[in-house]
Amino acid sequence: MEKFIENLPPMDLMRSEKMTLVQLIIPAESSHRAVSYLGELGLLQFRDLNADKSPFQRTFANQVKRCAEMSRKLRFIKDQISKANLLSSMHPVMQPDIELEELEIQLAEHEHELIEMNSNSEKLRQSYNELLEFKIVLQKAGDFLVSSGSHAVSERELDENVYSNNDYVETSSLIEQEMRPGRSDQSGLRFISGIICKSKALRFERMLFRATRGNMLFNQAPADEDIVDPVSRETVEKTVFVVFFSGEQARTKILKICEAFGANCYPVPEDITKQRQITREVSLRLADLETTLDAGIRHRNKALTSIGMHLVKWMNMVRREKAVYDTLNMLNFDVTKKCLVGEGWCPIFAKGQIQAALQRATFDSSSQVGIIFHTMDAVESPPTYFRTNKFTNAFQEIVDAYGVAGYQEANPAVYTVITFPFLFAVMFGDWGHGICLLLGALVLLARESKLSTQKLGSFMEMLFGGRYVLLLMSLFSIYCGLIYNEFFSVPYHIFGGSAYKCRDTTCKDAYTVGLVKYQDAYPFGVDPSWRGSRSELPFLNSLKMKMSILLGVVQMNLGIILSYFNARFFSSSLDVRYQFVPQVIFLNSLFGYLSLLIIIKWCTGSQADLYHVMIYMFLSPTDNLGENQLFWGQRPLQIILLLLALIAVPWMLFPKPFILKRLHTERFQGRAYGILGTSEMDLDVEPDSARQHHEEFNFSEVFVHQMIHSIEFVLGAVSNTASYLRLWALSLAHSELSTVFYEKVLLLAWGYDNIVIRLVGLAVFAFATAFILLMMETLSAFLHALRLHWVEFQNKFYHGDGYKFRPFSFAFLTEDED
């Protein structure tokens, strides 16, 4: 048997790849190129030899800062392109390779140019907004003044001063106008006009009323044009206002309130001729500014478009350079400061590829000294690396979500590829629903190449990543649905006629009295005649419950068998003798025997009560079984199995801790006397000797650990077997829900002759099927299958205490690295 096992071919997924710790001594002149080539290869995980240093104390901290600054500039340019609603080219134009220093200079120039253009554009937009507001105020306030002109006798027109500066109109403030000489009749009715945000208008009016104690008249009108904020680029709704008041004190208060609320005040002449003249001048200035703004936007978009052609390439280049310098910071300089020393893990199969990449780096950098690459002895456990493809990767991720396998530990993903979708299908079995899932999986597979290049949402990304899991789940659901003979809960005579017929020709008692079997059993799956019969639920309950126990015992035995392969692989004979053997005996003495009884009962058609048999196997093992006896010699066999189960518990608990203590005592016996023959110098040159790694053996800790493990297994054997009954429970729930929706919604609606009621019933049935049965039930069955694998299956052999192999690779760099 052992020779047969040794001759089995190795499996890529069964054990993680063999790893080795390597050391690299790289000349300083070829270090950058060597790390770059290793990043392209992606098969070496560097160890951080400067973990005790902060990022600012490392050798290449300045280069990392420069790359981070370039990343910031590239992000700024990218934001500007997106704000301008331009698309950066995903397929950049071909251009000669550019050096990092030259790129740094170019990016600084581009950033300065864009900042300057943004500043000029903002100033022009601010001027344009002021002119536009002035024009609106002239139009709206002029209407107020015309309507109130007949009532004002002693009103004095406010002087205005309109002049040109930097291609836009500016107006002097009212304070300056009031301070000019030549003013008379300061007691007349006066006004202030301006414009304010619509959201502040109500509070503004209330504050003016309180400040002037009601001695003012407030008129307002909405602005006909929306004004664009030059900073936020958002459209702002504004309101034009005119405040009539009397007195210098009221004027001062109103101006301060306007300033506090961010209202812009503009002087409006009462003379209609002057109003029209100023309006014409403002309109001319607005037209000139619009032309200038459009030209500036075209120039800016042209510059952004030319940069966008190279943006993706530049971002990838900077991202790679930063990753290279981050990796170089994990290396140490030797004493001569001419070479960098690095350590890392790599798979054994990749040593040749790594050496070839290092030789190419030496040649390309014209270095006089080659790169030294050699293996080292490691004390700590190596990382875990499984070579997966797009099919097996999703199943490996399911296992890794529980815990990463230890180095060379048996990998549950090998069996999860089949057992996970199968157990899901046992709970979800309906070949109509399975076809719906299959269509969804086929759509994802058909658009695989397109979706793999797109940035998906979290839900779609998870769904797309598990497309092959979904495919297998749908195929197994169709298979289990054919066994259950359910198509949206409706049975079909797919594989021939039923084995049962009615007692009489009218079939009036078919579902009350029962049917008569008249030919051989239905060839595949459940006979369709069970559907709707009075014994349907007892029959299907019995079938699915017993099937759940059988599947559970088989999978738990598989887990225990894998623990044997683990123990054998790591040469742990103690685990084989005092863990694997008693566990197999205990589980199969109880639940293996129960599975045997189920199979015998199915084969013989016996009416024995298995509940009674298992309960009294513990309570009264010597009593006569009577009508519950399934085969000859059952009672003595039960007594033997019960004794074996009782013996297996101390077998698991006691021998292993005592044997470990004896082995430890023998291993270190007399070791203390060996130190007498050595000197202090000998101790210094042998840091890896057994004396240095001598650890105190804590017997109580080992014994408590073994006791916990034994109790967990004994109790778990019962609870885990019961846990597999969820296969029966969820399958029953899915079937009954589907039946309710079919009979109480679709058939009920179809019983009416009204087409509207039928369409409504069909819509409700489709909605319930899609959202409850195909989404909620799928998620429920998925989570329960996940629990059965993580808890019931993997706890029999899987420790999951390893850590992933994370090589330095440019392929793993994402935009988040910026």
Describe this structure in words.
With 818 residues, the chain is α+β, with helices and mostly antiparallel strands. It is 57% helix and 8% strand. It has helices at 2-6, 31-41, 61-83, 100-148, 174-178, 201-211, 248-260, 272-328, 351-364, 393-402, 413-428, 431-446, 448-451, 458-465, 467-484, 536-569, 573-604, 610-619, 634-653, 655-667, 671-674, 680-685, 699-723, 726-750, 755-793; strands at 19-27, 45-46, 162-165, 168-171, 189-197, 217-222, 227-228, 235-236, 238-246, 264-265, 332-333, 339-347, 372-376, 500-501, 516-517. Strands 1, 2, 11, 12 and 13 form a five-stranded antiparallel beta sheet that branches. A four-stranded antiparallel beta sheet has the order 6-9-5-10. Strand 11 (332-333) and strand 12 form a beta hairpin. The model is unreliable at 149-187 and 674-694 (pLDDT under 50).
Write the layout of secondary structure elements.
Blueprint: H1 2-6, E1 19-27, H2 31-41, E2 45-46, H3 61-83, H4 100-148, E3 162-165, E4 168-171, H5 174-178, E5 189-197, H6 201-211, E6 217-222, E7 227-228, E8 235-236, E9 238-246, H7 248-260, E10 264-265, H8 272-328, E11 332-333, E12 339-347, H9 351-364, E13 372-376, H10 393-402, H11 413-428, H12 431-446, H13 448-451, H14 458-465, H15 467-484, E14 500-501, E15 516-517, H16 536-569, H17 573-604, H18 610-619, H19 634-653, H20 655-667, H21 671-674, H22 680-685, H23 699-723, H24 726-750, H25 755-793
Helix pairs in contact: 2-8, 2-9, 3-4, 3-8, 4-8, 6-7, 10-11, 11-15, 11-24, 11-25, 12-15, 16-17, 16-24, 17-19, 17-23, 20-23, 24-25
